[in-house]
Give the backbone structure.
Amino acid sequence: MLNPITNNRTYLINYAMVWLLIIGAHFAVLHWYYLLSIRFSLADSFLFNTFFAFLGISLWYVVRYNKTNSKFFSLFTSHAVSSLLLIGFWLITGYVILKYAISDSTYLSFLDRSFPWRIVSGIFYYAAFILIYYVIIYYNDIQEKIKQEAHLNTLLKEIELSALKNQINPHFLFNSLNSISSLTMSSPQKAQEMIIQLSDYLRYSLSNNDRQIATLETELENIKLYLEIEKIRFGKRLHFIFDGDETTLASQIPVMILQPLFENAIKHGVYESTETITIKLSCQLKNNYLSSTLTNDFDATAKPTKGEGIGLKNTQQRLFLIYKQRDLFTIAKTETTFTVNIKFPQHA
């Protein structure tokens, strides 16, 4: 994040105006209260305040460096050291410049006597800068969080609104209804089961608009409904294996996060193959992460199905917006297999 003062013209102008007022107040105190000459009062107030104004800009980077430090003692020590160095440099430099530039004994005597309250004013300036910078960072973090949440909500709404068109697409519904139609003649009981499965699948997919997190077990039940429906079309060409235990089933994952991955596996694996294609989902808990691996084989000799990879991109983007991590989603492809690895953080 860039310095908010130097990177924003309005802030920079306001910053300069505030310091002009401080210089004016400092000058007034020196001239009318301490009865220093106009020249000495102006030199003193201008040098010390202008110098700290420039040094104060650099404190932004001190605050940014300490932003992630959650331990009070480390944070206090860091600011204590930085304030000691900055205020010391500010006072010593100002004193040296004025002592060499002004030879008036009355002013130099005042300069020596003023050392204690200049330390106090330096501490006040430092504390004011730090407080303001932390407020700015806190405000910016809130705004960034609001933007990310708005983006996530927009993305979720787009996924929900396009559920029947893209993820529960018309081709899937059309093929399912055709399969049901055929079964009504040859196997009415199986057709009835198929209708129930399709109804349950659509009900789950369309009734989770307000939810963001579900258990793996709940999501897996819906995935199995989807696969059972697809098996009517592909028969023995589609085979699914789940490798996981009870603890993994209780893990929390985003709603409908796995659906596009299974669709991708069927589209690019089962659809073009004449042999049995196995889709395997392996899950295990490790270091507060649910590690999930979805693997499908495919026919390397078949013509690749065209696609833009929207499902994979949307899944990766959702993971980042929810968990604020970019290392949760990876894919790997060999000559005959395609693998998607996802890590879902599990917060106790």
User: Anything to note?
Assistant: The chain has two domains: 9-147, 162-345.
